[in-house]
Amino acid sequence: MLLILILSVVLKFELLILLVPLLILSVASLIQEKNENHAFVLILITTGTLISLFCELFYIQDALGKGNPALIRMNTVFKLYIQNWILWGISAGFIIFQFKDSFSRKKTWGVLAVLLILMVSVYPVFATIGKSGGFKSEPTLDGEVYIKKEHPQEYPAILWFRNISGQPVVLQAPGELYKWNTYITAFSGVPTVMGWAGHELNIRYPAREEIDARWSDANRMYTSLDLREVDALLRKYNVSYIYFGEAETKRYGSPMLFEKHPERFEKVFEYGDVVVYGVKTGNPGNNPGK
């Protein structure tokens, strides 16, 4: 035990003093245990301890870690370490039940138990009130209610895209983290050039270069004033529609090129400040597009 304590201090790995003895005791008890119920709980404890040791010693390399060193362990913790709440939570409940008759001064233990329950109830109570907005709204399973309320000009465009035939590609401002982006694709199902880059990198990290290229090209199609360049990119990604809504206006300003060349871009939908341009087929010819 002293050796473990010294190692935990030297290695700055304080959890060793808890995890190593817990692992030894749980494995030793599991080997000798004959009761199946007790053995199951010991397996939960052992598994949780091994997960804890693994997550403290190793991490699974992913796109988040490569992009930001501060996030190097994030997915390992969220996807793996967090399972201990289930494993050890079940174990703790079973252990407390098994030892309930062994507690002396039952009144004292009862008071402590009530205090503990009150303390751990603070977050679920206040978080529920906060997340629900104080239960001011009527309960609903309709995930689009907030769009109608917060983005009333965008919702008709979503409905319009739902009713077009086929799966034409629509150009939207590429998604930024935790912002109102690429919602046409999300709520209508039509494909786009580039979605939320963060999740695309997580899912398709080997295709990092293509993701970066799509992000750059999508932005370029909105910002370039060169018709030839934009036309080439539209053809590259087989874009049929160009969306100009709330996110695009904030990021790029006015749709100058698309308004300037009605021979190439036709307004097919307009509602308030939201405009959808259809890309006309054909070749821009000798038009320099300036």
Describe the protein's architecture and organization.
Helices cover 57% and strands 8% of the residues. The chain is an alpha+beta fold and 290 residues long. It folds into two domains: 2-102; 145-279, Rossmann fold. Strands 1-2-4-3 form a four-stranded mixed sheet. Helix 2 runs antiparallel to helix 3. It is elongated.
What's the topology here?
Layout: H1 2-10, H2 16-32, H3 36-57, H4 63-67, H5 74-79, H6 84-99, H7 106-131, H8 145-150, H9 155-162, E1 169-171, H10 183-188, H11 197-203, H12 208-223, H13 227-236, E2 239-244, H14 246-252, H15 256-260, E3 265-271, E4 274-279
Parallel strand pairs: 1-2
Antiparallel strand pairs: 2-4, 3-4
Short descriptors:
290 residues, 2 domains, Rossmann fold, disordered C terminus, alpha+beta, four-stranded mixed beta sheet, elongated
State mean pLDDT (0 to 100 scale).
86
Do you know the CATH topology of the largest domain?
Answer: Rossmann fold
The count of domains is: 2
CATH class of the largest domain: Alpha Beta
Please give the share of residues in helix.
55-70%
Number of strands: 4
The whole-angstrom Rg is: 29 Å
Order of helices and strands: HHHHHHHHHEHHHHEHHEE
Distance between the termini: 77 Å
CATH architecture of the largest domain: 3-Layer(aba) Sandwich
Report the principal-axis shape.
Answer: elongated
The number of helical runs is 15
Catalogue the unreliable spans: 284-290
Q: What spatial order of strands do you see in the largest sheet?
A: 1-2-4-3
Strand content: 5-15%
Tell me the structural class: alpha+beta
The largest β sheet comes out as: 4 strands, mixed
